[in-house]
């Protein structure tokens, strides 16, 4: 393998900001990325993740802050001077060029000798497994193949940084899984530093070395997938990471790691994730797959069943509490709509957030 | 016909081929073009082979043996081709600039005003503006750039300038619409791959625009080729700007020879058609697929 990543030590985003008129798309985003890392920028639409990526690529000027590649400030550079590889959401393949020409475009622009272009394009084609398709036009390829061309085109120039903007969002579910594994494999092979934008937490969890969760133009939490999955720092990050049940209550007692929250007469024990003042408002966050029906009379959340859906191995249930809070949970049996149910989760799986979150 | 085919009602079989009740809506359009285009065309064609005197081809023989007549083809081409190329060359960079502008609509409106004014009003304006005592010459004289007024009226240049002014908005609008059809992500992709502005234009935008520019060229050319008002008002209709439509006009309304006029019109049509066919044939060699980035 002769395609390899150009080397640098770290990429530093220093208080990046972007104003669109009165609207702040990005507010003081700072982040340091080490060479070889696979970073996922994760967040709901409008959180500023694509804006961040476009600013790094040079396609959008920042209105504040700077970008540093080691000791070199790169944000004044035009995109063609930065030399980063970018994979676009709609692939942005040149429709009038063959697969070979598309992949070789970046090398041609760099004035690479023809023989070397041919050699490196062939190698990139092999890496993304597109042998035999090289003389076709992009319009003659399937979505997954177009995606591979886009990736090959971005990496063949051996960029120090590969930027990917929701590259899998236009593919169907099966292909998405395949390409996810493919992207990870290519990253492992080349070791190119990658920044990957997605709104799909599963994608981010499975691909990234570190995840940057963004919301409202700000970085909310940076961490390894395992930490973000089980220990989100904020209630909104927890909700986004799949803790879909959010239940309001009052903190009854707090002792170190643990907190008890009084909800509808029941005292629910959970793990405290931030500073919680005794007697103040607090929220529980619980994943639907951790919330199960327990025997009537046990300590838990009382609710009325709205419906249950069969999901193969178990049922997904929907219920509403007396104060109107909707809950979703997993059950082994079908429950009659309208019946009363008490739901509980392992204390370790219950996160408690104080009002500050 | 097989049993299965005949068991399907005729209306459904027609619908499968795209013929249904809605198809009837094109009937007025067909009648309209039959009455106003197809019939007059064949009437004129027929008329042109029935000359006042001589055999069926007498009109055509006369046209191609009289330099005063056949010369009009070259005169008209010598106006229409440079005008078309010039408007296209002006339209491309302006469309590029306008595409990324905030107040695109305002500028587009300003640029389109010459279309709405019509050729005669533009000619009238130019008569004042470009004349020996007009602002243009006086400005140049005052600045000391020239010592005698530049002659821009009643010659080739007057017609040329007015054709560019009236033809440009149309060319510009078409170019802008073709340019807007190119996915902006393609240029961004080109930039991230190291292509500077000129390389992006040369390798990405131009190849995707060329088919559209060919169409624009044809339409603008046909417009310029049928020039009449400005050739009369601003040109020298007896000499350097005696265009082919003037020859047809003179045959019809000065000699009252409708047959000869029809023959001139037919020749005019053939010349236009051959240029258009040549351009479209060249266009057939180009990439003509979508100008977007695949499955978007």
Automatic annotation (TrEMBL), chain B:
Subcellular location: Cell membrane
InterPro entries named among the record's database cross-references: MetI-like, MetI-like_sf
Gene3D superfamilies found in the cross-reference section: MetI-like
Principal localisation: membrane
A biological process term (GO) from this entry: transmembrane transport
Keywords carried by this UniProt record: Cell membrane, Membrane, Transmembrane, Transmembrane helix, Transport
Pfam families linked: BPD_transp_1
Membership in a protein family: Belongs to the binding-protein-dependent transport system permease family. CysTW subfamily.
Protein name in the entry: ABC transporter permease
Organism annotation: Bosea vaviloviae
């Amino acid at each position: 393998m002769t395609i390899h990543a150009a080397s640098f030590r770290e990429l530093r985003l220093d208080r990046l900001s972007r104003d669109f008129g009165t609207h702040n798309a990005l507010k003081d985003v700072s982040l340091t990325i080490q060479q070889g890392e696979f970073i996922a920028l994760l967040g709901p639409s409008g959180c500023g993740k694509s804006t961040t990526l476009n600013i790094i690529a040079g396609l959008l000027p920042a209105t504040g802050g700077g970008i540093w590649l080691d000791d070199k400030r790169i944000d004044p550079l035009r995109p063609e001077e930065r030399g980063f590889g970018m994979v676009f959401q709609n692939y942005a393949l040149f429709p009038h060029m063959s697969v070979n020409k598309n992949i070789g475009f970046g090398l041609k622009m760099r004035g690479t000798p023809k023989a070397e272009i041919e050699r490196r394009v062939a190698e990139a084609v092999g890496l993304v497994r597109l042998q035999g398709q090289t003389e076709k036009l992009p319009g003659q390829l399937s979505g997954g193949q177009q995606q591979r061309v886009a990736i090959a085109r971005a990496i063949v120039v051996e960029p120090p940084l590969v930027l990917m903007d929701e590259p899998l969002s236009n593919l169907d579910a099966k292909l998405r899984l395949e390409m996810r594994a493919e992207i990870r494999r290519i990253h492992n092979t080349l070791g190119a530093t990658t920044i990957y934008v997605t709104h799909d937490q599963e994608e981010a969890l499975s691909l990234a070395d570190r995840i940057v969760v963004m919301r409202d133009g700000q970085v909310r939490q940076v961490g390894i997938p395992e930490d973000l999955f089980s220990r989100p720092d904020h209630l909104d990050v927890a909700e986004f990471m799949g803790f879909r049940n959010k239940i309001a209550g009052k903190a009854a007692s707090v002792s170190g790691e643990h907190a008890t929250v009084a909800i509808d007469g029941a005292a629910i024990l959970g793990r405290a994730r931030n500073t919680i003042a005794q007697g103040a408002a607090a929220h529980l966050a619980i994943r639907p797959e951790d919330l199960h029906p327990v025997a009537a009379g046990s300590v838990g959340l009382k609710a009325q069943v709205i419906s249950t859906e069969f999901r193969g191995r178990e049922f997904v249930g929907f219920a509403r509490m007396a104060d109107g809070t909707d809950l979703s949970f997993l059950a082994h049996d079908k429950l009659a709509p309208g019946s009363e149910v008490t739901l509980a989760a392992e204390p370790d799986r219950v996160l408690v957030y104080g009002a500050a979150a | 016909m097989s049993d299965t085919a005949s068991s399907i009602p005729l209306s459904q079989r027609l619908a499968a081929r795209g013929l249904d009740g809605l198809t009837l809506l094109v009937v007025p359009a067909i009648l309209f073009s039959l009455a106003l285009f197809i019939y007059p065309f064949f009437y004129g064609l027929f008329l042109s082979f029935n000359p006042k005197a001589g055999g069926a081809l007498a009109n055509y023989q006369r046209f191609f043996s009289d330099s005063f007549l056949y010369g009009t083809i070259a005169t008209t081409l010598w106006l229409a081709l440079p005008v078309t190329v010039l408007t296209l060359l002006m339209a491309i960079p302006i469309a590029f600039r306008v595409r990324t502008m905030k107040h695109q609509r305002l500028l587009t409106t300003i640029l389109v005003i010459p279309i709405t004014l019509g050729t005669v009003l533009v000619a009238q304006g130019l008569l004042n503006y470009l004349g020996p005592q007009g602002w243009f010459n006086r400005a140049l004289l005052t600045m000391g750039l020239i010592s005698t007024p530049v002659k821009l009226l009643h010659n080739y240049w007057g017609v040329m300038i007015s054709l560019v002014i009236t033809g440009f908005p149309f060319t510009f609008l078409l170019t802008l619409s073709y340019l807007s059809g190119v996915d902006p992500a393609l240029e961004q992709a080109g930039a991230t791959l190291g292509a500077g502005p000129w390389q992006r234009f040369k390798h990405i935008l131009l190849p995707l625009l060329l088919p559209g520019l060919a169409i624009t060229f044809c339409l603008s050319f046909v417009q310029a080729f049928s020039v009449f008002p400005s050739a009369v008002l601003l040109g020298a209709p007896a000499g350097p700007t005696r265009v082919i439509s003037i020859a047809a006009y003179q045959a019809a309304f000065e000699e009252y020879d409708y047959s000869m006029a029809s023959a001139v019109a037919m020749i005019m049509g053939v010349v236009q058609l051959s240029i258009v066919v040549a351009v479209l044939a060249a266009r057939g060699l180009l990439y003509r697929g979508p100008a977007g980035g695949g499955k978007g």
